[in-house]
């Protein structure tokens, strides 16, 4: 059979494989309002659950009276901790080795905490029921400041842990202390600090914010009393992990549980953990025998399900007077809220914060992190970053600026002379990581040239003159950021969540007519997996991406995997996809050789076919091979053409990038304008450039929000002050900057296709760029450090404190 | 975020609406665009037994421009205020201010009447109406009466309107031809209420200055107007600042708001002066 497409190039384009800016196949349904989200699920007899939440941040619950609520027509049940206790489900384990109340067990630890679960025939009755439950509270002293929480006479928050001096991650030093995590060489670092030419010291705070996915968290639990099988639909970023955890805590056997993540409207780390709503919905479904739906509203989401950051990072950075960095010291106070519900790999209670030496060759370093309980919501999840990497990147990129001020140096130059050099990779960092590959100098030079860095500095110098002369009230900041991420968790030898190894998987079935279905252990929340992973298969096997269906999220059909967060899908499941493809390709080669009547070694792969070596006219296309695989008796070869691969990565991947922001700031109103935002990303091999660009735009917009206004704020009484989108800043198209994207390509040496992952880089890299721009604008007037978010009043306050208001 | 149950009424004329209000007393509330009221109901901060929807009452809609005034029906939406060319010619400051309210989706629903009636200090139209010396017509069982915008606001959510009265229209005297105008507003993002906002009109007849979200009611400063009319911008800004009483919120502390108010007020005055033609 001769095919019509003849040139190799045409045949390659026809596949829409790796490197093709293929349009996202998901967007057809999303742009037509045809997505299928959890709240779209309707089942016969479905009930609705809603929470009674605590108005207090710290209080004893002295009584709960359900009577009035149960009297409301449509209200079916009201669950409290007392009801869950006999099942042992009034508390649940967190992913961080702590435990968390499912429903208030005698006390509440944060405002918005779940106190009772009202189940009703519809949402409206559930909501009325919530209003009618009478709860008596006796308020207790509130601690919202983690430093005060560690004072000797601070109130005991976690009475359940009283007297317990050993936590999940070692000794607890105080009744509100969770863990201490240390990395690096303390004595050597102290030694460097005491003998260095220059030491710059600063407290860098990365404030509390929230991933705020557009779609909130929710689930539908449906226990089939006949089969004894529980189906749990939910907004899960890790459906298989949820299945195993549900089985472990409910003792329902795992084969009797099916977890399904349908379309997910953004996750950003908020949907990794286990929430009270899931447990209560499952219990309510078991008790009532009916499906039970629970979906948060926006206030619930911002108040109770996982927040991100809240890290107080005290840094010391030592250098020679020429600017060569000799050591880094960092101590972190991490505010975890009322329960430690971080979603980090088990052995990493502060995530991968020890990537905080950044992109620099820092020979000696020491890090210690103390986790602390406060009367705030639990969480500390990775909001579009690999576990605490954005905190680490922000920390080091601020410390570089602080050091540059101390040395009176240009910070672009300071970065350049400290970058890890291309030839140093694989690079062993002082805090324990092995960076796989990088070429920082090339990326940095390209970035500085693209924005005409010299001209910007000249313009800025002129602006400062004009400002001092009273000709303008606007200052100009140039914000630099060079980040190295650590993503793709991770090698099973050191990465697990609750004991579940962090490999991932892909299963591919080629149909007899040459099209295919592939299933992965990950789950897209908007990243475009169905588009990008099909492109890998297309290039690897030689069937068009358009002929490949990609499915994720149903634990009854998808192979086991640990889900999507920490930019792990491309590094881990993407690798599994390539490896499964290669298994298929190997079998296809045997079939092709048989059909062409030559030895296996005498055929070679050519885009979409196997051809006889030296005789390209004699070939079998993948379509022909697929048909033969199913329908022809081939001696020594099993029928069928499918494969599954479980991939345990040998190392993390280390994407990097150079971001530069040019900002105008009005010193009187505190308003800003982003004049330019340049983002160079190196994520190794680029599978779909359009998706990469989209990810950079989205992540940088989140970074913009975080740096310039987004925060979760509490008052001293622990009242949540930013529970609606009026006060929780989410930029609209009007505020969102215009981005200029760029790239270099430094493939990962250990990944089968050299890809590193990109989804989180823009959040990690952009926050320091925006924040540094604000700092840079005021550098000439003496500003060293000012905490985010840089909203209007805080920028105004910087100017005011520097005496710029006359 | 689900309101408590309520009865929904949708009368076709004003008399029926008034009679429903009379029957149910403070159990009943009118709803216009719903973009202030419904969020409060969803938060269960306001519980209402009877909701009286005004949208079928045709007599409450429309914009009428005459030689010396503009009359706007209470149910006219902010979107309609923006798109009316006749209004933009007669009173361009209304389009300028309305474009700074919320976002297009809210403005398709939100009405002028709803914006001025309820006394939310964050709303932009009350300050603007004070600046323009508008009069509100309210109608109850005893028939219509007029209240000056400058006398309408008592404190946050407390106004001179009786509970059983409906605000039917707003009458605005036309400022002199060639008047200068400006509505300046600083906000955190599109869709936000003002950190500080100020409306200014200047003409041969004098000047008028009013401010939004800088106290628990809109603030109209007669002294600021007098100073501005005399060409004393510094004095006018000082007078305006003396009249405000901003509160701390997520937009910032009081000192910041005062500072920003000074900038916003000055910008509004300077822009109005440059636009004034004689
Ligand atoms: C996200 C968002 C942002 C916003 N930003 C701004 C902003 O920047 N600036 C601004 O000015 N506004 C803003 N608003 C408010 C918006 O303009 C409202 O729609 C408006 O204030 C109220 O008008 P309404 O027609 O929606 O009134 P409703 O919500 O229907 O009613 C408001 C109140 O007025 C009463 N009422 C309504 N009509 C009458 C009447 N004819 N007679 C007597 N009483 C009446 C009601 O009983 C109720 O108490 C915002 C709203 C939202 C949701």
User: Helicity range of the residues of chain B?
Assistant: 25-40%
Q: What would CATH call the homologous superfamily of the largest domain in chain A?
A: Aldehyde oxidase/xanthine dehydrogenase, molybdopterin binding domain
Low-confidence stretches of chain A: none
**Percent in strands of chain B:** 15-25%
DSSP, total strands of chain B: 14
What's the number of domains of chain B?
A: 3
Protein name (chain B): Carbon-monoxide dehydrogenase medium subunit
Enzyme class (chain B): oxidoreductase
InterPro entries (chain B): CO_DH_flav_C, CO_DH_flav_C_dom_sf, Diverse_Substr_Oxidored, FAD-bd_PCMH, FAD-bd_PCMH-like_sf, FAD-bd_PCMH_sub1, FAD-bd_PCMH_sub2, Mopterin_DH_FAD-bd
Organism (chain B): Sagittula marina
Description:
The complex is a heterodimer of chains A (806) and B (278). With 806 residues, chain A is α+β, with helices and mostly antiparallel strands. Helices cover 29% and strands 26% of the residues of chain A. Chain A is built from 20 helices and 35 strands. In chain A, helix 15 runs parallel beside helix 16 (569-596). The model of chain A has no long low-confidence stretch (mean pLDDT 96). Chain B is α+β, with helices and mostly antiparallel strands and 278 residues long. Chain B has three domains: 7-53, Uridine Diphospho-n-acetylenolpyruvylglucosamine Reductase, domain 2 (2-Layer Sandwich), CATH 3.30.43; 62-173, Uridine Diphospho-n-acetylenolpyruvylglucosamine Reductase, domain 3 (2-Layer Sandwich), CATH 3.30.465; 180-276, 2-Layer Sandwich (Enolase-like, domain 1), CATH 3.30.390.50. Chain B is built from twelve helices and 14 strands. In chain B, the strands form four sheets. A five-stranded antiparallel beta sheet of chain B has the order 4-5-10-6-7. Chain B has a four-stranded antiparallel beta sheet with strand order 11-12-13-14, with helices on both faces. In chain B, a hairpin with a 2-residue loop joins strand 8 and strand 9. In chain B, 48% of the residues are buried. The mean pLDDT of chain B is 96. The complex binds flavin-adenine dinucleotide.
